[in-house]
Amino acid sequence: MNGNLFRSTWAEVDLNAIAHNIGEMKKRLPEHCGIIAVVKANAYGHGAVEVAKTALESGAKMLAVALLEEALTLREANITAPILVFGRVLPQDVPVAVQHDITLTCFQKEWIHDVNRVSLPSPVNVHMKWDTGMGRVGLRTEKELEEITKEIENSPKIHLTGVYSHFATADEADLSYFEMQRRRFEHLLQTFKAIRNEPVSVHIGNSAASIRFPEQMYNYIRFGISMYGLYPSDVVKNEREIELEPAFSLHSRLIHVKRMARKESISYGATYTTKDDEYIGTIPIGYADGWIRKLQGMDVLVDGKRMPIIGRITMDQTMIKLDGEYPVGTKVTLIGKQGNDEIETDEIAEKLETINYEIPCMIPERVPRLYK
Ligand code: PMH
Q: What is the DSSP letter of 280?
């Protein structure tokens, strides 16, 4: 348990679900292929330290984050497993990474050049990033690969331990772009192997690629969204190659219940007017908790039944239309199961016209995470 609970709104993170999802993925992967648990952005909003510990206990071999500070947070929690940082760390900050045994990502000759000018207690471990079609970071051409590999060979401060790339469309029905990226990667890998003898770890797959093509994942997969029990897209969800359990749910409690007469209005702008005598409940969650105003009209679960959010969502409180009188303190579920019904993260994402990845990420620290 963490966070104070002076307010009855909380997110629940089911660590058994994380363990289950890793177990299911492991079953699909060949023996030689390990799991890198992607715990960047506070483990997609789930809580980096708790998720990282569970992932490692469940068989993940390595962790990955986006930022050096995210890696340091894990080290501060006494997590000693290998950690890879995806983003570009400033050359002058590399000593911090070395001090904490954190593996960095490199993709620029100039970066290697600059790191060589920094004083380091020991060489820094790096994975080289290849851009095969994502267009974000990474070297793209064979020429760049040859140059940078040579630069690394002449750099006593840099210890190359891995190479990787990232897919842009592995979750889609049309796999032609994905196949093109695979071909580019394979081509760069052959070039690399021809000039470099020392073995390195090779990884390319995110959740979508790993679920769909587990046999083609080289040494590691980088398991993100599906470790949290969500499918990377409807295509992957409908293919149903794997049964995932969602880890994240969001709950609150009624703090006020009233019976309102006909033709009374609710909340800012008076956008909702009662049609009849109605029971209206108030819950202590609002847009400052990531429950943004666009979610007006979305259902919540009370007593295992769907009831709608009515009127404008305010900064800290939201009103719902109840189907009867319920006592103050009654549990309200905004994401997750209650009784026989469930509001999936996917349903919230659809309402907001976005992807499920964004939903737990957008619930800020103001909402405490409780761990099951
Ligand atoms: N590897 C890299 C380099 C990533 O950026 C991500 C996710 C993953 C692996 C895991 O992907 P998955 O969650 O689909 O399994 N990165 C992001 C991102 O930058 N925006 O959304 C997901």
A: E
Q: How far is the CA of 208 from the centre of ligand 1 (A)?
A: 10
- Please state the domain count of the chain: 2
- Dihedral of CA atoms 85, 86, 91, 93 in degrees, nearest 10, equals -30
Provide the 8-state DSSP code for 214.
G
Whether 361 is covered by a domain: the verdict is no
Q: Which domain holds residue 264?
A: 248-343
How confident is the model over 319-350, as pLDDT tens digits? 999 999 999 999 999 999 999 999 999 999 99
> What's the CA gap between 62 and 52, in Å, rounded?
9
- Does residue 47 sit within a domain? yes
* The one catalytic residue among 143, 268, 294, 372: 268
Report pLDDT digits (tens) over 8-45.
999 999 999 999 999 999 999 999 999 999 999 999 99
State the closest ligand 1 atom to the C-alpha of 129, by its place in the atom list counted from 1: 3
Regarding pTM above 0.70, the answer is yes
Whole-number Å distance between alpha carbons of 8 and 331: 9
Ligand 1 mutation pick, 42, 131, 166, max ligand atoms within 8 A of CB: 166
Q: Do residues 296 and 219 share a domain?
A: no
Known catalytic membership, residue 279:
no
Our answer to whether residue 40 is catalytic in this structure is yes
Mark which of 186, 220, 239 sits at the end of a domain: 239
- The residue out of 203, 219, 239 marking a domain boundary is 239
Residue of the nearest CA to atom 22 in ligand 1? 357
Give nearest CA residue, ligand 1 atom 19.
Answer: 66
| CATH number of the domain to which 175 belongs | 3.20.20.10
Ligand 1 pocket mutation, candidates 18, 25, 38, 46, criterion most atoms within 8 A of CB: 38
Look-up of token digits 């050049």: 113
Please identify, by atom number, the ligand 1 atom nearest to the C-alpha of residue 357.
Answer: 21
Instruction: Say what the pLDDT of residue 1 is.
Output: 44
Contact 85, 102 (CB under 8 A): yes
In the predicted model, residues of the chain with pLDDT beneath 50 are 1-2
Q: Please report, for the domain that includes residue 273, its CATH number.
A: 2.40.37.10
